[in-house]
Amino acid sequence: QWHTVLELAQTQGFIPFIDVAYQGFGDGLDEDAYGVRLLTANLPEVIIAASCSKNFGLYRERVGLAAIITADTATRASIQTQIQSVARGIYSMPPSYGGALVDII
After folding, report:
1. Cα(2)–Cα(63) distance, rounded to whole angstroms?
2. What kind and span of H or E run contains 68?
3. Cα torsion at 38, 41, 42, 47 (round to 10°)?
4. 65 forms bridges with which residues in the sheet?
5. Cα angle value 38/41/46 (rounded, 5°)
6. Which residue, of 2, 38, 51, 89, has the fewest CB within 10 Å?
7. What is the SS3 assignment for 43?
């Protein structure tokens, strides 16, 4: 199925959004990352959302990430500015202990 998504993204020109909420709970860490690796290796731009809440049992801590792979540094800078602006509007100082726990593990 991942090869079909890749082919469609290449021919139709859309940017895939991948939600990696349960990595490792399917077939294993490496196996579950296959699609993400395939798309990021073959497309200029990909958006990835990943939650660590389920993987580390930190359900109320909102631990996760948004990663945006861009084709060039100018696009990256523009997107980073927009994401930071949205994040500031949502919260100014998120709790750090959940992320610190994931870093340790």
Report:
1. 26
2. strand 64-69
3. 80
4. 50
5. 85
6. 89
7. coil
Banded pLDDT at 91 (limits 50, 70, 90): confident
**Alpha carbon distance, N-terminus to C-terminus of the chain:** 32
CA pair distance 32, 10, nearest whole angstrom: 22
Residue 55's nearest CA partner among 98, 2, 12, 90 is 98
pLDDT at 89: 77
Phi and psi at residue 44, to the nearest 5°: -75, -25
Predicted confidence (pLDDT) per residue in 24-54, tens digit: 677 777 888 999 999 999 999 999 998 877 7
Query: In a 10 Å sphere around its CB, with 0-12 CB exposed, 13-18 middle and 19+ buried, how is residue 13 labelled?
Result: exposed
State which H helix or E strand residue 66 sits in. Answer: strand 64-69
Q: Which residues are bridge partners to 66 per DSSP?
A: 49
